[in-house]
Amino acid sequence: MNTSRIVIHRAFKILRRNLSTLNIEQLLSEENKVKTLESFKKLTKVKYGEKIKRHAAILIPICVSNKNELSILYTLRSTKLRTHKGQISFPGGHMQDEDGHEIECALRETKEEIGLDSEFIKVWGTGSQITPTFGVSIVPVIAEVRNFDLSMVERNPEEVDEIIPIPLERLIDPNYFRHTQFRTPKGHQYVLPVYTGGKKKFWGMTALVTHFFLLSLLPKDVYKIRIPVVESYTP
User: Fold this and answer.
1) 109 CB contacts (<8 Å, ≥6 apart)?
2) Among 25, 59, 140, 146, who pairs with 127 as Cys (CB 3.0-4.6 Å)?
């Protein structure tokens, strides 16, 4: 094992020890919820493109098992879909006329996609509107699901190929973290995170929202991953 891998391994052992000593109730306390939402709203004020007319909402489900293990729930989008087929994403979708606000949209779409009823979901609040370079603007909604078990969900085969809870310790592991660089049609460049600790790696807006959420939720000594600054790329 080379020196860099030894350093990463030691760092992750420290992270796991710090995570294991966290009091789950403190992490999910009202005080930490307020802190998380304040930070998350600031971090999600992201605008890569111009104002977009179409809007969507996604749900970030923090799942707490009966064993007090934390995970975040994702979906593997169906290959039948027209866009982003076969990719990892959060439950969610486009705002409809009947949706009074983004929270209603996120809960409705979550029920439609994975069958998780709103009675099991405790909403914390929303982040800010994220405007990508194209597509739809996104408002992420943070929520908590206690006593989570996969028996509580049932995928809609027209929209979801698999429901995937990813343990928190996998998401904070630097061994499973990468990054990718993008360049807009106007020549602007930016770097986004990539997570590889689940059944399938994910990137783009799903990874960016995940990164912002973990930065907001967890203490700095537990989640130390930062998106690197990459020099401009010239082909």
Assistant:
1) 57, 58, 59, 91, 92, 93
2) 140
CA dist list (Å): 222 to 119, 173, 210: 31, 10, 15
Longest dimension (CA), the chain: 57
> With left for phi above 0 and alpha for psi between -120 and 50, is residue 82 left, alpha or beta?
alpha
Residue pair 192/179 in contact by the 8 Å Cβ criterion = yes
Please choose, from the candidates 24, 22, 60, 25, the residue with its C-alpha nearest in 3D space to the C-alpha of residue 44.
Answer: 60
Q: pTM (2 decimals)?
A: 0.86
Question: What are the pLDDT digits (tens) for 61-102?
Answer: 999 999 889 999 999 998 776 666 678 999 999 999 888 899
